[in-house]
Structures are given as C-alpha cells and as structure tokens.
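#lab-general

N.A. 3:47 PM
ok so I finally got the sequence cleaned up, no stray characters, all 649 residues accounted for. can someone with queue access submit it? mine expired

B.Y. 3:52 PM
send it over

N.A. 3:53 PM
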Amino acid sequence: MRTRSKVALWEVSVVIVCAALLLSACASTAAVPTAAHAGVVTFAEEPATPPDYILPLVSASDYDNANVSDLSELLYRPLYWFGDKGEPVINEALSLAQLPSFSDNNQVVTVTLKHWIWSNGQPITARDVIFWMNLVSAVTSPNAPTVGTTTQPGPSWAGAVPGGFPENIISYTQTGTYTVAFRLNASYNPKWYLYNELSQITPLPQASWDELSLNGPIGDQDTQAEARSPISGTSPTQYAPTDVGTATSGAFGVAQFLNSESEDISTYASDPLWQVVDGPFRLSQFTPSGFAKFVPNTEYSGAPKPRIAAFEELPFTTDQAEFTSLESGNLTIGYLPLQDFSQRSRLESSQGYSYAAWDVAGIDQYYYNYTSAKAGAIFKQLYFRQAMQSLVNQPEYIKDFTHGTDLINNGPVPLYPPKNPNVSPLEAKGQVYPYSPSRAISLLKDHGWTVVPGGTSYCSKPGTGTGECGAGISQGAKARFRVTYLAGSTLDSDEVAAMKSTMESKAGIDLNLVGESFSLITSDIYDCTASTPCTGWDIANYTLADTWVYFPDYLPTGEELFETGAASNAGGYSNPVDDANIVATNTAPSVTAERAALYKYEDYLARQLPYLEVPNSPYQLTMYKSKLRGLLPQGIFAEIYPEDYHLNS
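B.Y. 4:20 PM
back already:
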C-alpha cells in the first residue's frame, strides 16, 4: 500500500510544475553542453501519477509505469531487457546477461553476465544477482514476517504468483564470478521462463546496499545464518528460496531497510544508496511533487551512451494542465489529451511538434471486487458479467471519445501489434460480447432479476436453481455498485459516464461514480482475498485509459493478472479452470503445444470475462518537438529510451 497521500501534493502541483519548468530553463542555460552531452529533454508525466518509489523490488500497489519505466529502469537495468524497436521481443543488446542456457530437461537454467559495471566502477557480478534472489525470496516466502500498515508498508514483490517465481526455483547457485545456475522444480517452457520468470530479476549493487540500517555494516547481511539454511551438503552459496523469510531473516531485514529508504522520496537525489546505478542515467534532482532530473551515468556499459545533458520529467495535476504546457512549447515530449485532439495541427505548426500515437502491448479493463461482501456474489455470476459487458458500447466509445485511436478489447491478450501471433482466432475475429442492451436485459430476467430501467434492478428470485439469481445473492439484492476511477483524465471521466448512462437507463444497473487519486485507488484494490476482502469499492480502474501493460510478464500468459492469489490480481479473481490453463502455457514442451495452450487460455477467459472490457487505448498520443531524434519507435511495453535522444540544432 501507499504510505503517503499525494492528494495535497497534487493540489499544488500546477505551481510546482511552473517552478519546475523555470528550473528546467535555468538548468538548460546554466549548463555548458559538451559535444557528447548537449541539450535538455523535458518529458510530461501522466496526470496525477508522479513517480514515488525508486527501489526495483516493488509492491503491486506501486508497480506502475511511473515508478518502473520512468524511474527505476533508467537507473537499474533488469537482467533481461524486453522491447526492441517497438517489437515485443527480448533485446539482447540491452540485457545485462547473455541469453540463458537450459539443460537437464529444461530444469537447470544457467545465466552468464556480460561484465558490465556499476557507476562506482565495481563490476556487476553473479553476487548481485544472488542479492536480488535473496531479497525477493525473503519477501515472497510463506515464512516472511507480517509487517507494515497502511502508513508504512513492508517490502513485497508485485510479480509474486503462488507457485511461480521464485517458488518454482529449488535452488540458485553462484557457479562463477559471472555465472548463476537455477535448478527448477519442473520442466518449463524455456521461452516462457525467460520472458516471464527470469524477466523478474534485477541485479542490485550488493556491495553498496547490503545493510540493515544507514549506519550499519555493509556486506553479506543477506546471507547471515538466520536468513536461510544452506542446502545440505552443498556450497554455502547455494540456497533454496523456501528457506528464506523468517522473522530473523537477514535478507528480509535488508529488504525492509531498502523499502524504508524508498519511502523517503525527499532523499532520492541525495541518498548515497540511489547514486550507485548501472542504467544510462543517475538521478540529480527529485521533488515530492514528482519532478525528476536525470543526468548521464558516465560509466554506463551499454550502447548508445546518453547524448543529452539532462532528461527531466515534469508532473501535472490534470491533462488540461499538461496541454497548457504543450501550447506554450515548454515540453520536448508531451501528450495530446483526447479532448484537445483537434488542436494537433495547430501545435504542429505553431510550436514545431510532431505526432505519434504510442501503442503498447496492453489491455484496458475495469476490475470487479470479487471479495466484496455486498457485490462479490453478484460478480461471480457469469451471466451478470455478460450482461454488464453487453452494455458497454466499445465501437461508440472509440468513435466519440478517442477519435478512432483505440482498438476493440476482446480478451486477455493484446491486439497490438498488428498480426500479433499470440492472438487467437476467437479474439481476432471480433467481440465475443458485442453491445446489446436487449441481451443484457434478457440475461438478467432469465436469472431471477426484476429489471427496472432508469431505476435500480433487484434480485426477486434468490437461489441456485434454473431461473434464479445464484449462490450468495439474497432476496432484494440491488444492482448498485460503487465505481472508482482515476480523477484528472477526461477520457476516463467520459468513458465511465457513458457506462453509467447506458447501464442505468437500459437495465437498471446503478453506478455510483467516484473519482479518486491513483494512490487511494491502488491502496484499496490490492490484496483482495476471501480471508481479507477489499472494502470501499465494487468496480475500479486506476490508471490513465485503464491500461495494463504486460511487464514483467512479457509473454501474455496471464499468471500475474488472473491466477488465484497473484499479487497483481486486483479484486481477487479465482477460477480453477483458468489456473490450470495458465499452468499449461507455462509448461508446454514445444512451440506447437505452447501456441495451443495459449489459445485455450485466452479463449476461455475471453468468454469468462474476469473484468469489464473497455477499448484498448494507446498509452498516450505523443506530441514531440520535431527537432528531437531517437524517440521513434516508442516502447512496446511503455518503456522509454532517453539514452537514444538527441536534439538537432
């Protein structure tokens, strides 16, 4: 959960943005550009979602594009990088390691690092991978201590899936200065294991970060005897993830310390921890409002090296505030709010901007709260989800609200890029549940509901038999739901208002709309289980245009979003058939079997509707200064590449 309410900060962010812009201008004129580093590129953050968590080991409620793509990944590179010239594939050149080798019936994976270095000149070694493994194993272990409150959460990992990484690793061993071997608990599909499991590893600077407090000793705190029991008869560098996470765990203590430091956003630019990086940039300035200034890491091992003097990210309260900055020509890279789409030509001619829609491998949805005491039993009925989906007019939303820039959402696998081989024939051919108010009304009436168009429909035939409302739905239960959505976005406001109008007028499904901040919504919707149900919401989205981008599970097999108990499974969806289908995609022994398993998984969920589908939107409609080079193609997983940017004079 979030530890800071950002509402008060956002209320004054317009003032802070202005200050940030002035600061940016001063920095641009005061700096003395060199031939290698010339110019400052400014970048608009999404409205009301500034970055505020720097540690790559991040919880589900903080795992968003602002914190990952726009902050931590500029500083700390994952073991394997995905996204290559706008395609959803691994990028070998930007990865810290060579492609992994699989042996012993795909149950042993060996990773060899490339000999890159940290910004302090120290090599990135296998020990840095082991450090990450020790920390992520500690915070995801069933033995991990219960810590944290709504004001000071404990460390956790957003990619956690029961039985998945790192639980599917029997042991991990440093076999050389630059090599690590992972022994797995089963034979897995190598492509899936690379794209969705090894993709979750980010080497961390163990020699600089391995401590329990600011003034404590640094080094090997994560391998203290209390942290784990080494596997009997093996090297002391070989460990089992299941042995990590006790209350006295050294690894958990280090994770807790780093999490605490990450919560102190006022020190991001000054804390020595965050100055040891391996990415193309280091952070030189950061404000609580979200203004971030990055300067080149002169020791960056990758290519190309940064060519700009600084990269500055600017916060905005609303998309209208950002558009005002675009009109003034103060942004190098911004976005065109949909309500201002007609102004595109004017911005191009008057301010020297070019336009490029930023499409990503993502899906857009509103989550159902299956754990809600009031609404959960209703949402668990497939007929009710079918009825609600039949009241969402996706083609009309695309026409009225997005100027044709969106795509139909028809299931769990993104329809972008075009000719995506992961898209099944069922998803590709059109909507499984097209707009049909008459069908919605029939579904409700056929299952024991009295439909009250313009009012509130209610269950008049409780029970589990034919023609009755279904398990857990009581006599008189009302179709009345609280819908929370991200405040500040005109698209989201228009979209949810259209849903409310149709659902209420056609079928008596009463929606109470509540616009909230990103942090308030995410603190509400995660960790929903039968034993700890989420309260305060029934239906929710939390990000601009509702987009879930597939990372760090780059192959869209769905375990992090739809598997029972997954950390990022907002609302607590649980379906044993879906769980089994997901496992089949993970263990498919061949390319043919992998494709068949993936199609089976996605077709089942396309019919099951675990979430409310809305059109898949571009991540943003980018407006960028025509003199900027290196921006295109934009990242398929919403990743950014400011090291590629340069400015023509």
